[in-house]
Amino acid sequence: MSGRETARLYRHEVLDRGGVAQDALVALDELATRLGRPVHQTDFVEEARTNTSSPLRRYLEWDADEGLLRWQLEQARQVLKRITYRIISPDDAIVKVRHNLSVKRDETSEREYVDVVEALRGRDRDLLMTQAKKDLDAVATKYRNLLDFEQVIEEWLESWRSKRRRAS
């Protein structure tokens, strides 16, 4: 059975609206139907901008100063994401990594950036490993309904191990 055939077997329903009101979900569904495809960010913004009665409007910032600050923070985040280090492990394997990673110290704290080099030196290493496990859990949760997901993970793990052996 192909992936597309398997996909047809699944049904879906909104489990967690993430704070999105029902009327906004209906508006998004109507917009997707009108477009004949999934809604992209630009579609969302355009609909909220041009349709003043759209329930989508309340999810966007309309104050210019606040919007500018949020945009500048997003631009700064994008710049920081592009900075990378070349890490040379004790077995001389070279790995390219982002210079910082976004983590949460606990469930109640805000996300913060941790310098990868400092984490590798010991400071925040446990935090980084905890975040790595959470990230892997998130991937497993996202793809758990694929019938052959475990096989995909096993193939990826073998490929990853092979690359590490070649690098050392």
Name the features.
extended, disordered N terminus, two-stranded antiparallel sheet, 168 residues, mainly alpha, 7 helices
Structural overview:
This protein has 168 residues and is mainly alpha-helical. It has 2 domains: 1-60, no CATH class; 84-168, no CATH class. It has 7 helices and 4 strands, in the order H-H-H-H-E-E-E-E-H-H-H. The chain has a two-stranded antiparallel sheet with strand order 1-2. The longest helix is centred in the middle third of the chain and has 19 residues, at 64-82. It is extended and about 60 Å long. The chain starts with a helix and ends with a helix. Mean pLDDT is 79; it is low at 1-12.
Task: Please sum up the structure shown.
With 168 residues, this protein is mostly helical. The protein folds into 2 domains: 1-60, no CATH class; 84-168, no CATH class. It is built from 7 helices and 4 strands.
General form: extended
Main sheet properties: 2 strands, antiparallel
Average pLDDT works out at 79
Helix content: 40-55%
Number of strands: 4
Q: Write down the domain tally.
A: 2
* Sequence of secondary-structure elements: HHHHEEEEHHH
List unreliable stretches of 5+ residues: 1-12
**Helical run tally:** 7
Strand composition percent: 5-15%
Gyration radius, rounded: 21 Å
- Major sheet: arrangement of strands: 1-2
Give the N-terminus to C-terminus distance in angstroms: 39 Å
Structural class: mainly alpha
